[in-house]
Amino acid sequence: MSLTDKNTIVSKYLSSHGDTLATHEHLGLEAIRAGLDAGRMALLANPSHKNVSPTLIGQPGRVKVNANIGTSPMINNVEMEIQKLKLAEKAGAHTVMDLSTAGDLDEVRVRILEASPLPLGTVPLYSVAQPYVARGQDPSDFTVDELFEEIEKEAEQGVDFMTLHCGVTARGASLASDGRRILGIVSRGGALLARWMKRRNVENPLLENYDRLLKICLKHNVTISLGDGLRPGAGADAGDAAQWEEVSVLGDLAKRAVEYGVQIMIEGPGHVPLHLVQSQIQGIKRLTNNAPLYVLGPLTTDAAAGYDHIAGAIGGAQAAYFGADFLCYLTPAEHVTLPGPEDVWDGVKASLIAAQSAETALGRPWAVERDLNISKARAALDWEAMADNALDPYTLRKRRQDFHKEKECAMCGSFCAIRMLEGVEDAMICGKKS
User: How far apart are CA 108 and CA 128, in angstroms?
Assistant: First the structure.
């Protein structure tokens, strides 16, 4: 049986939303169904998330962008997180993830689900560890049952996809933390599981109880985002033994999930030097049976603190061109502090630029048409058409505001190259006649 036969929720969404999805993605419905059945695509939509907008992840459909929001122990303002959610949606994000680690995490999660139709992702490990941290206990004191109870609760609340670090094996965690790496384990979830395993001298509970996890996720159509708990956090660590150990495990787990009827995505790097992006993306795709690939950046330099949204967009454009399907944004706050509302806006726009750049290079009609339309508008000095085709119409209009009555931009004025030759031929003809 195919995935769509086993997963009746996906089949229902295809029946009710299939034509809309096909039109939006510029794909035939049968191509979408084939992609889902093969595990090359995922349809994010938990029926318990009321009014959710079913969202397809997987090329050759459109490249999607995710925005991370959420509280932290040092900055805990739920109203600001709802503001960030609304800005992410307005900026054009296709999904959001709630990475909250402080406050009433159930309240934050439920409010986000009620406030937006965008598919919501979470990291259940954070919610399991958070009460222990709040009590001053070891964050890895949680039990296996507590972990799975949290996963089931979030599924029932309506979470559409979950980052679950099932591929962090005891061996992989050792390879990443034995001194071979510059930066060790940088994933919070990966570090939590590594600590949990080391204290008990046992294997990853998500790996050991994978069938239990699949059963929960199939029931609610929760897409498992197989987390990259051992992703490189420094360019020098990209492509090391720990990273590929985890990826090879994720490939096997992805295959098992699809056979069970559960949708999956693979999470990818991380920090990757520019010249390694192609081999990283293509290598991960090959080892995971071309499963949808969800990448953080990748950041092509470690030295862009304060501008990591730019470093991530450079890597994201390369990654999407070589096969990544889903870009997780980075903001100017990455590695420094909790993102604020302006950071969210900048992060979404940077990732949308990366997606547009990749899709144009891939010859995707919608991207090529957008670039062509804005070029034609520039040739005509048609500022409204430029704004309509820009990835950020708001910023274009804001920057032009002081000179909006002028035909030319404020940089060139009467030196405008586009207008320089206007009327020259008519003048030449008149000159000959006289």
Answer: 15
Rounded average pLDDT per 10-residue block, the chain, 434 residues: 96 96 97 98 98 98 98 96 98 98 97 98 98 96 98 98 98 96 97 98 98 98 98 98 98 98 97 98 98 98 98 98 98 97 98 98 98 97 97 96 94 93 69 55
Do residue 344 and residue 387 come from a single domain? no
pTM of the model: 0.95
Q: Residue 427 has what pLDDT? A: 59
- Quick one: 253 and 232 in the same domain? yes
- CATH number, domain at 315? 3.20.20.540
Same-domain status, 296 and 311 = yes
Q: Which of 302, 328, 362 is the last residue in one of the domains?
A: 362
